[in-house]
Amino acid sequence: MQLSEQEIIRRDKLNALRQLGIDPYPANLYPVSHTSKQVKEQFEEGKKVTVAGRLMSVRDQGKASFAELQDSEGRIQLYFNRDVICEGEDKTLYNQVFKKLTDLGDFIGVEGELFTTQVGAKCIRVSTFSFLSKTLRPLPLPKVDEQGHVFDAFTDPELRYRMRYVDLVVNPQVKEVFVKRTKLFNAMRSFFNNAGYMEVETPVLQSIPGGASARPFITHHNSLDIPLYMRIANELYLKRLIVGGFDGVYEFSKNFRNEGMDRTHNPEFTAMEIYVAYKDYNWMMKFTENLLEYCAIQVNGTTEATFGEHKVNFKAPYARVTMTDAIKQFTGFDISGKTEAELFEAAKSMGIEVNDTMGKGKLIDEIFGAKCEGNFIQPTFITDYPKEMSPLCKSHRDNPELTERFELMVCGKEIANAYSELNDPIDQRERFEAQLALSERGDDEAMFIDQDFLRALEYGMPPTSGLGIGMDRLIMFLTNNASIQEVLFFPQMRPEKKQIELSEDEKLIIGLLKAENNQALGTLKEKTGLSGKKWDAAMKGLAKHGLTKVVVEGDSKTVVLN
């Protein structure tokens, strides 16, 4: 393993601690009495406390030092005095262990008493300190100059998402997003539980990926010698429980869809689905707007949220617009009674990319997504979807071409989807068979036929309404994050590129090219001050790594970064 200079130094310090008889990774518990927040809130001059956390800064003043300790609640200032820590003649604990063998990022525990500094800061006068964990890599801590300008901040998104453990340490404000995420889940659970509904669990590995139109991940069960699919939705299992006699069930489920990744989609995501017997989609609309109003208040203390340039208000009630009216309003085209061929030509004339695998439902969905969706900023229920778009939804009581379905749109994105659930087993079989026909035409997102679910419906399911909410997307709106990666602790990432170890000469050349790319070869060589042999070796190394190339135009040669 190639180690940096800093990593080598830290390992040397690790060995030095052990030689002094100090265990850098002790096994026994450390008796923390207060968090940094509790110290500040319950501050009493002279009070004895025991705290633990990461050492984040040190201001060495010779025989004394000020430092900052960061724990899960924030930071607290520490004061180390050599003669307090080392009462006798032996000053090794301060002079050697603290000043020379302790690094920023190390976990330490301290005991001491509270006092107020001359500038009014709440501080702990350390009487003893202990090593709890030695860090072997330096944290990418930002630097602040005298004017307050921040340098070397850990802001690169790919590095932050890939190393969330570092992101949370050096960018503690990120933690607030995940605190709010937990508040959202707790609020929603509380709302459902108070309504008398039951939280349940359903399978993640399924023999048939049902409940949604999506491309699944496929795996194999060795013992049974059968293919299995990662769950794309939990709908059909929750409905089975309604058949079995539960009046209301819900689940927060991890779903998996083998599709694209972008700022609003991750292959693994969290959805909430709830099904309530003897209800319809009109009842569910009122239930949904009351739910989201409650959750917004519990998460942010208000129904209002900022998302980008928009101010969104989750206070009920929400506007209601039919799918047909929405398309008519923003395109001038009436989808009512149109054939597949007419919809195909209409979508094409609007500049929407279409192909022969698309049925009526997919074509309407594409028109709505391209021309209408982005116009709905405030929470709006889009209702009464065409039947072809909703194979699990009950036919509309007033128009058999439509279904009793709504989606909730916020800032141009769908965050909730709900139905009056289809409970006619014969109609459901016909809808599944229509999906099978689409699959045979090449639609790889069409639904499978779930024979066991059809059998369950034949035993009878009461009138039911169901609701699904994308939890990741909802928390994006409540925390003003435009990227789903910001609200997931560990988003899916492309494989990490192997780190290229460069020589000092190679680093010198790269640094000069980053400052000014596309330099004449002779000029660049002169700037480096390298001998011919060292120059040739460095340039060959950079070319081998694919980092630079020499561009020849006539008699001139320039070096550029790849």
TrEMBL record:
It catalyses: tRNA(Lys) + L-lysine + ATP = L-lysyl-tRNA(Lys) + AMP + diphosphate. It comes from the Bacteria. Its cofactor is Mg(2+). One of its GO terms (molecular function) is lysine-tRNA ligase activity. Binds 3 Mg(2+) ions per subunit. Homodimer. This is Lysine--tRNA ligase. It comes from Flavobacterium nakdongensis. The gene is lysS.
